[in-house]
Design goal:
Layout (H helix, E strand, L loop, with lengths): L1 H7 L6 H6 L11 H10 L9 H10 L7 E6 L5 E9 H5 L5 E4 L10 E2 L4 H14 L4 E8 L3 H11 L6 E12 L4 H25 L4 E6 L2 H16 L2 H5 L7 H16 L3 E8 L2 E11 L2 E9 L8 H14 L6 E3 L15 E11 L6 H33 L1
Parallel strand pairs: 3-5, 10-11
Antiparallel strand pairs: 1-2, 2-3, 2-4, 5-12, 6-11, 6-12, 7-8, 8-9, 9-10
Helix pairs in contact: 4-11, 6-7, 8-12, 9-11
């Protein structure tokens, strides 16, 4: 990988090659052993950039294959920084020489930086992108206030550069160091908890309510099929976005869940009413942090809030685990189910990293991304309006 990286950062890379990412090595060329070791040493956890997850994404997930890699190495040849990337042309359909952090199906693109050499790693990653011909690096859904961003800011400051914030929001997280019952009382209040207990009792009329955690590869594989069935039977299935509805996505999640379970970093939690699974969720682990990837429910039981019931049990499960100190909801801002339960917050956003001082292309890239984001927001708003009108008329 070191040799590939040195070849990839040749200063003769053309603008066209940089825009298309041809001058960088493929993600599959990254040395997996060193990558795993780096993930263990990372200054900030990112469950979605662990190699067993991200390589599965890169192999078959829709719209996410064919990523390139920025890799930083110490003078001794140790991997100290890694960021999967794609050309801006492919992500935004904007033909400018810039790179974008590859979205790993988990809405978190914080790069892996060695905790003992984070600033050096950030400097080398940015230098590799610059030498490959990119004028900017866009980090989407980046942790804005963590140690990884602090290292990037320091690396930029040494060159007289500063990051540009494109967008930001506060994402729900769980403080798993707290007592779960106390946390839930503070978050939901006695009245809401009483209502949820009533719903759970009604759910129990269909059979004893049971919360199961699959951890072994065999148990995870079986529980994953239950999850895929639940997800496809709900609103995601109606929209055509459930993982199991597309061969590439289904192959990705089966490969990733199995590989992550082999190293104890994937659990699937399932809530049953008697013999019927009514909700299931996929949870990843990295260092002392959990990542709540996705949830699926049986909508026949929707009036008893199976997704919320599952999340209550997951909260208790994570708070009781001394190995976990926090959990990332991986949820959109203002999520109606998770936000009221997990009340901790951390800042997430999209950041534009300039790679050269006084580069006239950077304002143009910034402007193009702003227009793109406005158009995207307008399109999402129109879709929500149409759906709301449809639901009212139906």
């Amino acid at each position: 990988m070191a040799d590939i990286a040195h070849q990839a950062v040749s200063r003769g890379a053309s603008r066209k090659r940089a825009a298309n990412g041809h001058s960088l090595p493929p993600l599959s060329a990254a040395p997996i052993g060193q990558w795993r070791a780096l993930a263990d040493r990372a200054i900030e956890a990112n469950g979605y950039y662990q190699p067993d997850w991200e390589l599965a994404v890169d192999a078959s997930a829709r719209g996410r294959t064919g990523a390139k890699v920025l890799g930083a190495f110490s003078d001794a040849g140790r991997l100290i920084g890694l960021l999967p990337v794609m050309p801006m042309r492919r992500v935004y359909r904007i033909p400018v020489p810039a790179l974008v952090g590859a979205e790993p199906y988990g809405t978190l693109c914080t790069p892996l930086l060695d905790r003992d050499a984070a600033e050096d790693a950030a400097t080398k990653l940015l230098g590799q992108a610059r030498s490959a011909g990119a004028h900017a690096l866009i980090l989407r859904t980046m942790s804005l206030e963590g140690p990884a961003m602090a290292a990037i800011r320091a690396a930029l400051a040494s060159d007289g550069l500063h990051p540009r914030l494109l967008s930001g929001y506060q994402r729900a997280a769980l403080d798993a160091t707290r007592d779960a019952d106390e946390l839930l009382r503070d978050a939901l209040g006695a009245k809401k908890l009483k209502e949820l207990r009533r719903q759970r009792n009604r759910l129990a009329e269909h059979g004893a309510v049971r919360f199961d955690v699959a951890r072994t590869p065999r148990a995870v594989a079986a529980a994953l099929e239950t999850f895929l069935t639940l997800e496809a039977g709900g609103w995601k299935g109606k929209r055509g976005t459930a993982l199991g509805q597309h061969a590439g996505d289904a192959a990705f999640i089966r490969r990733a869940a199995s590989a992550m379970a082999e190293i104890g970093r994937c659990e699937i939690v399932t809530l049953h009413a008697g013999g019927t699974p009514v909700a299931a969720g996929i949870v990843l682990r990295h260092q002392d942090r959990a990542f709540f990837f996705k949830i699926g429910i049986d909508e026949r039981f929707a009036k008893w809030s199976p997704g919320t019931q599952l999340t209550l049990d997951l909260t208790r499960h994570l708070c009781a685990d001394p190995a976990i100190s926090s959990a990332d909801s991986t949820a959109a801002p203002g999520h109606p189910m998770i936000d009221p339960i997990w009340r901790a917050r951390f800042a997430i956003g999209d950041v534009l990293i300039p790679l050269r001082r006084r580069d006239p292309l950077v304002p143009a890239i910034h402007a193009a991304l702003t227009v793109n984001n406005l158009a995207y927001a307008a399109a999402r708003g129109a879709i929500r309006l149409i759906r709301n009108r449809h639901s009212k008329s139906g």
